[in-house]
Amino acid sequence: MAQIDAFFKLMHEQGASDLHLLSGQQPVLRINGDLERVKYKVLDDDALRSMLYEIAPEHKLKVFEDTGDMDFAYEIPGLARYRANFFQQKHGIGAVFREIPSTILTCDELGLPPVVKRLASLPRGLVLVTGPTGSGKSTTLAAIIDEANKTRKDHILTIEDPIEFVHKSLMAVVNHREVGVHTKTFATALRGALREDPDIILVGELRDLETIALAIEASATGHLVFGTLHTSSAAKTVDRIIEVFPVSQQDQIRSTLSESLRAVVAQNLFKRIDRRGRVAALEIMIATPAVRNLIREAKTYQIPSMLQTGKKYGMQTLDDTIMALLNKKLISPEEAYSKCNDKPKFLPFLKNPPVDFTDVV
Questions:
Q1: Which domain holds residue 59?
Q2: Kind of pairing between the strands at 69-76 and 224-229
Q3: b or e along 66-78 (b: 16 or more beta carbons within 10 Å of the residue's beta carbon)?
Q4: Distance between CA 7 and CA 133 in Å, rounded?
Q5: pTM of the entire structure?
Q6: What CATH number is attached to the domain comprising 338?
Q7: Residues 332 and 248 in one domain
């Protein structure tokens, strides 16, 4: 057993999502969104480096020594997998670990709307799951892929950095590829994927123009492609995709995206007040003909209104979902206000409304 495993067991017992190990500081756990220090000695750089190097793949350590950054996955059988990031900081080495549960929760167990589960049955197109870091994007995608794995006789190919949730082939055949281990880049893997007879492709992160362009191309040529972005709403997701491309290409991409995009799920996590844990609020955009037309005509600012009127298709705005959680007394008014899009809508619920010093009076 590696020395660091004791911290992972503590992390698991406390229900923490993240573990921070930093030279010159005590260990820190993120529990229900808040950072809490562990009652432990301040970590010495040499001792921490030795502890971290014990679990790091040898070929990755060279990358770390050369660049000061490194990502990889670590697994404790029977406990969980961990997404690891090593980095150099002022006082020495640092590392952050995100726990990835060994058991994949289903869409029903996560309480996701029925339309999200149905995304697993789409024949083709592009589906994006978005949100800030730590908002549960990977968990939602894992549930959708799990549904496809159980119900489709297809080839599912995932491209990740690193591999997070591991799916055993059930009705489908599942292959996992890790950037830096099994392939050089997301773009290289995507180019290769088109020759590997996939039906469903999961791209862990749409990071750059080339990867985004290849994902759109794959979705437009008969594949079902899932990907993630760090955007906070459906409209901003569409804008982000288009703005990555040079101005001269944006009209063409807007047209192509309007045809290939099937859905955007934008989500965030909120601390519960009824019990321990967190709950997700989702914005859902389904690419109906009316939505496609807005994308094609560069009228994405009208998408929020379309979500309001598209409830029969399973669409919903993030703020409406947050309001529902607030009315059910699952989250606090302060938590709702901090993560909503329309701040004035939630102000009346606050006992002590904050003063935003960035507002111009």
A1: 5-101
A2: unpaired
A3: eeeebbbbbebee
A4: 22
A5: 0.90
A6: 3.40.50.300
A7: yes
